[in-house]
Automatic annotation (TrEMBL):
This is Glucosamine-6-phosphate deaminase. The keyword Transmembrane helix does not apply. It catalyses: alpha-D-glucosamine 6-phosphate + H2O = beta-D-fructose 6-phosphate + NH4(+). One of its GO terms (molecular function) is isomerase activity. The record marks S146, R153, K155, T156 as: Part of the allosteric site. GO terms for biological process: carbohydrate metabolic process; glucosamine catabolic process; N-acetylglucosamine catabolic process; N-acetylneuraminate catabolic process. InterPro entries: Glc/Gal-6P_isomerase, Glucosamine6P_isomerase, Glucosamine6P_isomerase_CS, NagB/RpiA_transferase-like. Allosterically activated by N-acetylglucosamine 6-phosphate (GlcNAc6P). Belongs to the glucosamine/galactosamine-6-phosphate isomerase family. NagB subfamily. It is an enzyme of class 3 (hydrolase). Residues 13-226 form the Glucosamine/galactosamine-6-phosphate isomerase domain.
Length: 261
């Protein structure tokens, strides 16, 4: 894990966008793993700005989203398909159908999940996966207790996750679906590079376990400690529980700029 502590979300978005632009420039048909929620918004804003400035094209790239609520109507504004199109896909030049996601209305969920795994493999796997982390330590919707080797499947959301996401449903926790489809921890771990973003004091406990705690199904994101190329981008508030925060700052400041992340 490389831990990078930055002053604000703007700096985080710019650094993550650098990595994605560099990837797409050297590999135009790159496969991106796309997260939704508030954590990656600064990344998508920066990428959209660079596309508008003619600095990057996603015309040959493809994408796979992490997760989806089960049972929301297709036209609901909070389906993750609609959210990722609003936040990113429709702001750049992905080809029609180039970004795929789990189908929360699938009639045969196990068959769909198996087919989704096959589609990721057929695309050559994910080159760079964007992640956030929940206050309960989930990545994707792999809630506490998830198998560290899990693949795409249906999961029941914890009460805390539904409370955290109620802000997207007018503050009504009962309007938040109880189930989701999510890429598994094993699926996420197959990505070649993972960029995880966490900001704000509410993420500090989860970040502490992610970076400095034991690998445990109680904090599912800790499985990333076993990945060969993870970049964790934090603001000061999210990094406030890290015992080695000063060391992480010094290490990144001493890193040659040409190495990137």
């Amino acid at each position: 894990m490389e831990i990078v502590i930055l002053p604000d979300t703007t700096a985080i978005g710019a650094l993550a966008a650098d990595a994605i632009v560099n990837l797409v420039q050297r590999k135009p048909d790159a496969v991106l793993g796309l997260a939704t929620g508030s954590s990656p918004l600064a990344i998508y804003d920066e990428l959209a700005a660079r596309y508008a400035a003619g600095q990057v094209s996603f015309a040959q790239a493809r994408g796979f989203t992490l997760d989806e609520y089960v049972g929301l109507p297709a036209d609901h504004p909070e389906t993750y398909r609609n959210v990722i199109h609003k936040d990113f896909v429709d702001r750049v030049d992905f080809a029609e159908g180039a970004v795929r996601g789990p189908d929360g209305l699938a009639t045969d969920i196990p068959a769909f999940c198996a087919a989704y795994e096959d589609a990721i493999v057929a695309a050559g796997g994910v080159d760079l996966q964007i992640l956030g982390i929940g206050t309960v330590g989930h990545i994707g919707f792999n809630e506490p207790g998830s198998s560290l080797a899990s693949r795409t499947r249906i999961k029941t959301l914890t009460r805390q996750t539904r409370i955290d996401n109620a802000r997207f449903f007018g503050g009504d926790v009962d309007a938040v679906p109880t189930h989701c489809l999510t890429q598994g921890l094993g699926t996420i771990m197959a990505a070649r590079h993972i960029v995880l973003v966490a900001t704000g004091p509410q993420k500090a406990e989860a970040v502490h376990h992610l970076v400095e705690g034991a690998v445990s199904a109680l904090w599912p994101g800790t499985i990333l400690q076993h990945h060969p190329h993870v970049t964790v981008l934090l603001d000061g508030a999210a990094a406030s529980r890290l015992q080695l925060a000063d060391y992480y700052r010094e290490t990144y400041q001493a890193k040659p700029a040409w190495q990137g992340i």
